[in-house]
Amino acid sequence: MGINGFSTLSETTGKVITCKAAVARGPGQPLVMEEIRVDTPQKMEVRIKILFTSICHTDLSAWQGENEAQQVYPRILGHEAVGVVESVGEGVVDMKEGDHVVPIFNGECGDCAYCKSQKTNLCDKFRVNPFKSVMLNDGKCRFSTKEGEPIFHFLNTSTFSEYTVLDSACVVKIDSKAPLKNMTLLSCGVSTGLGAAWNTANVQAGSTVAVFGLGAVGLAVVEGARARGASKIIGVDLNDNKQVKGQAMGITHFLNPKDFGIPVHEVCLSTITYQSTCILSLFLWSLSHGNQDHELRKIKEMTQGGVDYSFECAGNLDVLRDAFLSTHDEDACTMARESKMITSGWGLTVVLGVHPTPRMLPLHPMELFDGRRIVASVFGDFKGKTQLPHFVRECMQGGVKLEEFISHELPFSKINEAFQLLIDGKSLRCLLHL
Fold first, then answer.
1. Regions in the chain scoring below 70 on pLDDT
2. Annotated catalytic residue: which of 37, 47, 75, 79?
3. Are 313 and 352 in contact (CB under 8 A)?
4. Would residue 305 count as lying in a domain?
């Protein structure tokens, strides 16, 4: 017997494998647990046995079919996982059968101009691409039904299957002593959020931070800010249940927009609109409708006019604007009362949420002349193959509380229940055992 009770890897090398996978056959339809065929890896490809996988909101959005242009079926979703190498294709030299690995949706070939640049973590060939559904080598699928129908790939990974085939650029070898369950989180959520705090924003000790949306990515930002010594970490979410988990992870203040009497349809996911708040900025609409000054002064006092860093983790443009305006503003209360739109300040807003809407960025160019900046971050600006192994070692030394992100564990066969937990806002990360 091999790892986790499955057959010795060498018994399947060079053969087509029949295994179980959760197949998406239409937008919003329950995933179907099917027996599929997984082909052998081709040149510079790796076939891995998935041991654990989890579900993030990107999987949920893809399953729901929010972006019609990205819909292709049948398809195997999933991109957070950990596994072991079953076999490698021609030319793969940086890993071998039996190695413990993490799949990554934002690959790193190591040879292109992008990979050689220190200014980006994107790869010319293997960067994140939700439209890509086949392998790069030959434009074909490595998955098929028993009847021979092709099953499409997802985000370079497709981890909702007992076995999967990936380009070697999208597979990271990790320390064999690393706790496998926890390593699943490094495929996406934790790396994305914590990396945004460490790499993209470079949060400094003593600084102030606002995080809009306390899902796994948002809480990973919190964890990163806490580890860097931020003096105030303000969490914003419509779900009061996120407060307890947020405080356990390191938030110092929690804000729920509903507590301020502003209609949810006006504030969307995490919006309390007031221009001077350190947590959320307030639209002039709110001022004209008589919000309580004592609440506003209290919020402003929390950070002397605004936060140094804000992170948008909700995938909502209205929330994004509020996150942008929540960064430091010299005298926003006075200017807001005088109905002046010009503000001055500083601060960096990092965009992490996936935005399926066709709406454009809700900012006026002149707002950028006042010292505030806005950037986006993919995979926390980690270069996957070269930097993730070091991050794994940091996690093994206890610098990051990975276990706090796993809220539920279920067998792979109950994947639809895991999706429902996420839809209901009850799970942070549900770990599926294959």
1. 1-10, 260-301, 329-345
2. 79
3. yes
4. yes
